# Entry
Amino acid sequence: MHEMSIAQSVLDIVLQESHNHKVNRVLSVAVKVGELSAVETESLRFCFDFLTKGTLAEGARLEIERVEVTCHCQECGSNFTVQELIFACPICKSPRVEMLSGRELSVESFEAE
Amino acid sequence: MTVKVPVVRNILEANEQMAEDNRRVFRDAGLLVINLMSGPGAGKTSLLERTIDALRQEIRIGVIEGDIQSSYDAERIGQKGVQVVQLNTGGACHLDGNMIKSSLAALDLKQMDLLMVENVGNLVCPAAFNLGEDMKAMILSVAEGDDKPLKYPAMFQQCRVLIINKIDLLPYVDCHLGRMRDRALQLNANLEIFEVSCRTGEGLDPWFDWLRRQVRERKAEVDGTKS
# Structure
């Protein structure tokens, strides 16, 4: 997708929060990326490293947590992980399911000094 | 001293905020908004032309045309005599909430029942950016192959409608319609699927009927909140 603009948004958030918390240097940034968010993690890392040059976050590690796709079955109430992109309940086979996770794209925290 | 700063902020929060602003504007105007997506050349503009021709006597339609470059599509739609505005993203692979917001000044939403937003031709990125629409719809043409739902799951997963276009080409391409449907439904069992040819007109009537019903329901909803 457009990993450069995603990386820019990550950096914007981190720099804004760094300013609020009055830190001098960002050491690492933890982000969550859902399996269904269509973001390519290696490309995101590359763009992040490029954009952070000359900022407080230069050299910061980008820690990417992939979030698997999970659903809630509206028929039998069970929660399950989606395997091989089949959005149907593995217990009762119902296709009436609601997605619980998998589309995440968030900055969770960062370490700084 | 090292500190850990908790943040928990959506990376796309700026866009989500814009989309929410747009949604409010659309709600106030009482119209139905559909975000129409597909790969390049699947037939978004052709579907709009057909839809406008069939429904313009009964439904006031407006169009936002999204393209990387050119105003070719807006000119095509403009010939139909409906409100249209062209958005050029200048390289960006998708429309976002801010672009939609900036285009609204060029449209009179009060004179509209249905706003169709034609996104940039791309099966990946547009799915991640809400625009403030009521629903997402997508087109997949049989010429693209029946494996596309497996390769671009996010878009199929989020759409309410799948229009399978160019069925007149079925004799000439290796596409299995049943398999395409099954794969799409496996990702999203709630998909409304229409099999059409914008070239010959085949299969379009059920789509028009469905659209009429959606516009009617939106109207009833708006009237309900007023009274």
